[in-house]
Amino acid sequence: MSFKTVGFDASTSEQKIDRLLIVRLSAMGDVIHTLPAVGALREAFPHTFIGWLVEERWAELLCAAGAPRRGSRSTLRPLVDEVHTVDLKAWGKSLFSFSTLQSAAKVWNDVRGAHYDAAVDLQGAIRSAVLARWSRARVVYGAAEPREAPASLWYTRGVVARGRHVVEQNLSVVEAIVEGRKRPPAESSHDPFSGDLLPCDLLPCEPQAEVRIGRRLAENGIEDFAILNPGAGWGAKRWPAERYGEVARKLADQGVRSILNYGPGEEELVRAAEAASGGTAQAMSCSITELIALTRRARLFIGGDTGPLHLAAALRVPVVAIYGPTDPARNGPCGTRSIVLRRAESVTSHARRTAPDEGLLGIGCEAVVTAARRLLEGALPRRLQD
């Protein structure tokens, strides 16, 4: 993988990076896809102070609930030295209120007070580029052709990203900072999660959450289980909820219970899946910290292109991925055993349509169950692997 950048040399004493800011605001899967790149920076600059600016709702992917967001790294906050958060959605609803202005001022005082030498925008949106520039870092890196083209106006160093998967693209951007001190990632055949630091090492592990999840599973007599996730970011990516229930029925015949994961606003979906399962699946809502603990124990994950699927992949849980309008070559499960189901008639599109993709509807329950059985064959239950 190659890249082009203007001549900032991170290895010289004049331009030494002591403090580095990552900007990746959202969403869940995208934050997870950024972990390998930031892990590469951590390996290259083990003593550098690394901060991360992220939306408040995704902060638990970097720092366990209740843990300090700044200070010495630990299993509660394994990757970064400080987590800065914004709540842009809430701020936008009351842009000029005193509380919004006060919250925004505190964030920017904290970010600017950290005196970052460099910032890296790994979102490629106008808002993330502006926030990276506002950090007052002397150098701002980003992709030369970002997702939103005007974002490049706020970069001082544009990097020509390479690779097809978004993980590879992120790695190629940060490689410009490392400047040859770490070998460049290979092309698409390379496993971007094969380095010394794996995403499963970079996600928080909170002992109390582990205990709570263990207790919930024990109370319900659940040991060997799969996680089924009917929800997705928008309707076109959602495989019918009732089909998840049917899959749960068939998995039960294999001695594998199903847990239906759901988040805010997905209650109706999970009720439909639970009803269709005939009592073989149980709905369970978790915080992100708890979902990490739950997913670590799962034997299999089944779902569409959504954050919990990418969390499962990062935790090395086998994945059956049910894809419609999004391209698995760019956004597919990465770093674990997986089977991606996508029909030829699905056309790549990020249009947020509410109706399910026609190609997605063409994927039947039997195809999903067959894929699940293939991944389950020969795999020990997670409780015996640990």
Structure report:
It is globular, with a radius of gyration of 21 Å. Helix content is 37%, strand content 14%. The longest helix is centred in the first third of the chain and has 17 residues, at 28-44. 47% of the residues are buried. The protein has 15 helices and 12 strands. The chain is α/β, with parallel strands linked by helices and 386 residues long. Helix 7 (207-219) crosses helix 10 (288-297) and helix 8 packs across helix 9. The strands form 2 sheets. A 6-stranded parallel β-sheet has the order 3-2-1-4-5-6, sandwiched between helices. The protein folds into 2 domains: 19-194, Glycogen Phosphorylase B (Rossmann fold); 207-385, Glycogen Phosphorylase B (Rossmann fold). It has helices spanning 28-44, 88-93, 98-113, 126-134, 166-178, 199-202, 207-219, 241-252, 267-276, 288-297, 307-314, 328-331, 358-361, 365-376, 382-385, and strands at residues 19-23, 49-55, 82-86, 118-121, 139-143, 157-159, 225-229, 257-261, 281-284, 300-303, 319-322, 338-341.
